[in-house]
Amino acid sequence: MVQLAEISWIDAEELFKRTDVVLIPVGSTEQHGPHNPLGTDHLVAGALARVVGERTGVAVLPTIPIGISEHHRHFPGTLWVPPAVFREYVKAVALSVATHGARKIIFINGHGGNTASLIEVAGELRRTYKLFSAVIMAFPPGMVGHAGAGETSVNLYLHGRLVSMDRAVDTRQREGLGPLKMEGLGRVGPAQFPWDTIDLSDTGVLGAAGEVIASTKASEEEGRRLMEPYIEEVCRFIEELKAARVEELLSKP
Ligand SMILES: [Zn+2]
Fold first, then answer.
1. Fewer CB atoms inside 10 A, N or C side of the chain?
2. CATH level 3 topology of 4-248
3. What is the Å distance from ligand 1's center to 13 Cα?
């Protein structure tokens, strides 16, 4: 039993004697197209943290379910907090678990919008608070897009009862903004603007500018194919981390 929310303080005392590694799952509550649950990003982060924690024996904190999602606000049910509030809260959670002996603090992050802030917090934990900290994405590398086939497949694999495939749609993402065509510039890379999802997509599904994103192609099997090798890789990293002396991982004075 490694989930802090499910054990007593007696068990937690034992757990922190055995390990100085903790996983903090972080996500969002935001629209994920007409077919995926609002909790997609925090549910996937929590599920990955749970299985990695069970396999490696490190402590798993309760999931932080609300993040930086204001750009999805036009879709009902989306929740968010300002980035500065998010950073302070996440940092405070990390420092609280450090008082129990955690020295290596790993954020399992399910939401791209949180990434820059989590890296900032991890940097502060390492440079100012003499802890090691890192951010691991909950979705495997190369899985681009938002609520497209990849993310929908992972949901089908991990918690399929929450997905309504009869509502899945294929979406062509807009490339421009109003009269601006931005052809060939795209929304990332050469030209960026602080887009809201509604600027680019009526369904809430996002991928690459101008392309069709086929959420309808999602399957449970594809979700398994994407996640299982990734879970193993994350476990390998956590095993390495367990074996390392924290002094060797800290920021130099
Ligand atoms: Zn997502």
1. C
2. Rossmann fold (3.40.50)
3. 34
